[in-house]
Amino acid sequence: xxxxxxxxxxxxxxxxxxxxxxxxxxxxxxxxxxxxxxxxxxxxxxxxxxxxxxxxxxxxxxxxxxxxxxxxxxxxxxxxxxxxxxxxx
Length: 89
Known about the structure:
- The chain is of the alpha/beta class.
- The protein is built from five helices and five strands, in the order E-H-E-H-E-H-H-E-H-E.
- A five-stranded parallel β-sheet has the order 4-3-2-1-5.
- Helix 1 (11-20) links the parallel strand 1 (2-6) and strand 2 (26-29).
- The radius of gyration is 12 Å and the shape is globular.
- The two termini are 16 Å apart.
- The mean pLDDT is 95.
């Protein structure tokens, strides 16, 4: 069970995560990774994004329309405690 954090705005990050993703893994979009929300939503399960990062980029409404769960910093901290393995892309 791993947490994949996509911080890079490069589409290759989504492709790399897609290859390694297992059923119990979760994916979180941060920083410039937020710009990949459409591609990530199409290819990855268990997708979440940081609410304030999406808001600062003007992507909140679009992410909500796609059903991407927006989480707080507190929820992010809980995710890091839940997952023994964390990978940043």
